[in-house]
Amino acid sequence: MVAVTTPSTTSLLRRLQVVVWLQWMGATLGLPLLPLFLKNHGAGPSTIGVIMGSFFLSGVVTQFVAGRFADRFGRRTVLIGALLLYGIAGPTYLLPVNANWFIITRVLQGAAAGAIEVAALATVAGLVDESERGRAVSKIFAAQLGGIAMGPLFGVLIDVPHIGWAYTLAGIASIGAAVFARQFLPVVDSSLRHEELPPMQFTPQVIGAVIGSMAVGLGVGVYEATWSLLMEGIGASTTQIRLSWTFFCLPWVLLSGLGGKVADRFDRRKVAMFGAYNAAFFLFLYPHIHSPWILVLIGPCEAVGAALTMPALSSLLTQGAHDRELGRRQGLSTTFNTAALAISASIAGPLFSLKPSLPFTVFATASALTTTTLFYFWRRVPGRVTPE
Question: What is the mean pLDDT of the chain?
């Protein structure tokens, strides 16, 4: 049976948006100052890199497993469990321990954040008809980006020595989101848990969507590792660096609804590839611009492409999937996206030390070439879905 969007479904989507927004807002309250917090606890640059990277590595290892659990035991169970795990990990930043111990905290948070993303996107795909998934998924991405944009603003009054309290508040917000999710998400029929899961379909459509997610991750990793360094190198102030992130996030939030409508109305393959090529173009362009204010102001142009890409990719990923296959498909896609992000972030730093433009050029080229393979994988895939 195909899911149909109804008033009750719309209400569920709005509540799920609140859950996602709460979790990501809390997660980013103290994130900009976390490296300085770790330094105060005795960590050197290499240790800080390992601790920060352990978050992504944990996601790579656990996201597909989280998707399988979501298919077996229900998306509600995985989402609530992951929110509780993230909540429990938050207060550990208050412990008077050496920085090395925080690797455990970041591993737990990375696993929880990955499971939350997988369960939330699988929930959306299971709630709405295939022809409307672009719009539905775009709302989740908007909530995620909105939380990422607002978290640092809410945490601006918290200084480095008190970052532990910021993450404690984040933990409370995550536990509150878990309680909220428990009240409104539907419970899976327990009899289904004893049935065999349908086999995972590795069709050209799914493979292409996973490859598209990898192309996106390659670019994001460069920004994670070197964007602030690039801005600083051309004389940008800390205010301009913060504004560059805000000016990218907010247009994506505002345009995500439009991106979802475009994904549902037009050929999703073309929409996803346009957005991916757009991202690669700007990744290549940025290091050749030497005015901080120009970099701040052209970020929204890239955000337009990002707002188009993600709903289209996510819709193609779940198109034609069995309801109890959605979690594994989402888990597979997010695993490869996170892996690509982690790889590019780890390589971008050393490349930047050789030449500031080098990581941007290398991974812009890699992202564009990866996107080009989609012409082959999606050549016979239907790009549009007729509403039922």
Answer: 83
User: d(Cα 244, Cα 14) in Å, to the nearest integer?
Assistant: 28
Alpha helices in the chain (DSSP H): 7-27, 34-40, 45-73, 75-89, 102-127, 133-154, 163-184, 204-233, 238-265, 268-285, 292-318, 326-354, 358-372, 374-377
User: What type of residue sits at position 198?
Assistant: P
Helices 326-354 and 358-372, axial angle in degrees (round to 10) = 150
**What is the per-residue pLDDT for 1?**
36
Give the pTM. 0.82
Joined tokens for residue 68: 């399988």
pLDDT digits (tens, 9 = 90+) for 1-56: 344 444 477 788 888 888 888 888 877 777 667 777 888 888 776 677 778 778 88
Phi, psi of 203 (to 5 degrees): -85, 165
Taking the C-alpha atoms of residue 71 and residue 123, their distance in angstroms, rounded to an integer, is 10
Neighbours of 293 (CB within 10 A): 12
What residues contact residue 205 under an 8 Å CB cut-off, 6+ apart? Answer: 316, 319, 320, 377, 378, 381
pLDDT digits (tens, 9 = 90+) for 308-353: 888 888 888 888 888 888 888 988 999 999 899 888 888 887 888 8
Q: Residue 16 burial (CB < 10 Å; 0-12/13-18/19+)?
A: buried
Q: Which residues contact 152 (CB under 8 A, 6 or more apart)?
A: 28, 29, 31, 32, 242
- The rounded distance, in Å, linking the Cα atoms of 278 and 298 is 12
Q: Which residue has the higher pLDDT, 48 or 205?
A: 205
DSSP state of 200: P
Nearest to 137 by CA among 61, 69, 189, 213: 213
For residues 203 and 365, give the distance between their C-alpha atoms in angstroms, rounded to a whole number.
26
Length of the chain: 388
d(CA 83, CA 90): 11
Arithmetic mean of pLDDT, 277-298:
92
Mean pLDDT of 369-388: 84
Residue 26: Cβ within 10 Å count: 28
